[in-house]
């Protein structure tokens, strides 16, 4: 299988183990059409992350405008500062829609008959890598968003100003950029603690519900297999040593957590039940064995963005590991 190596000697019979070459996988002829479509979206992902990382907001201008409501100059200054930022937030939101479509294309490719999900991951490593890259981007975006309150502050000020209708000449320009319907959708998006993850979770759930002839296990097995792949690569020194880039370790951790969360949202009983095909104890242990600076955000994602952690079916040991 080329770069795919079976990992032997593991104790979970219900969980296939593979080594996927996340660094070097290239599309085969059969993968090219979907790969090109998804790649066009992923090419923009780093730009989106860089813009979000440098997003400082218009906090000072907004504070001065609020403290001096009668000073038209300060009102216009705040408005002029906020409008380009809202245009940027609109771009982020629109990118989430493109990412949703890319995920759907990958799910269709990686779960379509006649192959089982595990066979798809063996045969189509380049698409599996793209799926991983979407998850990596998603968790990176949401970590940055969660630590930047300026995003919601700026957008709230923008909407309040629009509704008060105080700066009519500038409002018209802004409304053509972000109309009321778009502003409502953006509000729902940014109100989520992890908006990109919520987008992917909803898209995966929708994919399952719309493809009624496709067993839900085909989708969840794709996710659980990817989680196992990442866990084994992280916990096995001989496979870790194959990575030429140290960033690939963080990449694997993010992907593992991302597919766990998706699995937990899509599977009827979730990722934490005893019947789950994901070794949650093993996955959490792998995260805890890494430096806390690189994993605390990922552990928080498991604590706060999963659906079934607090169910009665979750063992006390798993809950204790996430305390």
From TrEMBL:
Its main location: membrane. Signal peptide: none annotated. InterPro entries: CYRI, CYRIA/CYRIB_Rac1-bd. It is found in: Membrane. The keyword Lipoprotein applies. It comes from the Eukaryota. GO terms for biological process: regulation of actin filament polymerization. GO terms for molecular function: small GTPase binding. The keyword Iron does not apply. Keywords: Lipoprotein, Membrane. GO terms for cellular component: membrane. It is a lipid-anchor. Coiled coil: none annotated. Residues 18-319 form the CYRIA/CYRIB Rac1 binding domain. Belongs to the CYRI family. This is CYRIA/CYRIB Rac1 binding domain-containing protein. It comes from Chloebia gouldiae.
């Amino acid at each position: 299988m080329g770069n795919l190596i079976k990992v032997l000697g593991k104790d979970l019979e219900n969980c296939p183990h593979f080594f996927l070459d996340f660094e070097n996988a290239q599309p085969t002829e059969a993968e090219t059409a979907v790969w090109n479509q998804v790649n066009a979206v992923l090419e923009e992902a780093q730009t989106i992350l860089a813009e979000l990382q440098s997003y400082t907001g218009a906090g000072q201008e907004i504070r001065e405008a609020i403290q001096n409501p009668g000073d038209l100059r300060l009102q216009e200054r705040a408005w002029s500062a906020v409008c380009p930022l809202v245009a940027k937030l609109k771009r982020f939101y629109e990118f989430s829609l493109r990412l949703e479509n890319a995920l759907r294309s990958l799910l269709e490719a990686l779960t379509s008959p006649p192959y089982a999900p595990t066979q798809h991951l063996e045969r189509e490593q380049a698409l599996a890598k793209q799926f991983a890259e979407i998850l990596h981007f998603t968790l990176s975006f949401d970590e940055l968003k969660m630590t930047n309150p300026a995003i919601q502050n700026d957008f709230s000020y923008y909407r309040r100003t629009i509704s008060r209708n105080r700066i009519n000449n500038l409002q018209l320009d802004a409304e053509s950029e972000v109309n009321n319907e778009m502003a409502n959708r953006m509000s729902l998006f940014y109100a989520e603690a992890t908006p990109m993850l919520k987008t992917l979770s909803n898209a995966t759930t929708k994919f399952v519900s719309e493809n009624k002839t496709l067993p839900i296990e085909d989708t969840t097995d794709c996710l659980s297999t990817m989680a196992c792949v990442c866990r084994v690569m992280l916990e096995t020194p001989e496979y870790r040593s194959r990575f030429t880039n140290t960033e690939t370790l963080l990449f694997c951790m993010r992907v593992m957590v991302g597919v766990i969360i998706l699995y937990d949202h899509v599977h009827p009983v979730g990722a934490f039940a005893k019947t789950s095909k994901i070794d949650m104890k093993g996955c959490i242990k792998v995260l805890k064995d890494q430096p806390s600076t690189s994993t605390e955000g990922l552990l928080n994602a498991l604590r706060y963005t999963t659906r079934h952690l607090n169910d009665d079916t979750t063992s006390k040991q798993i809950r204790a590991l996430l305390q």
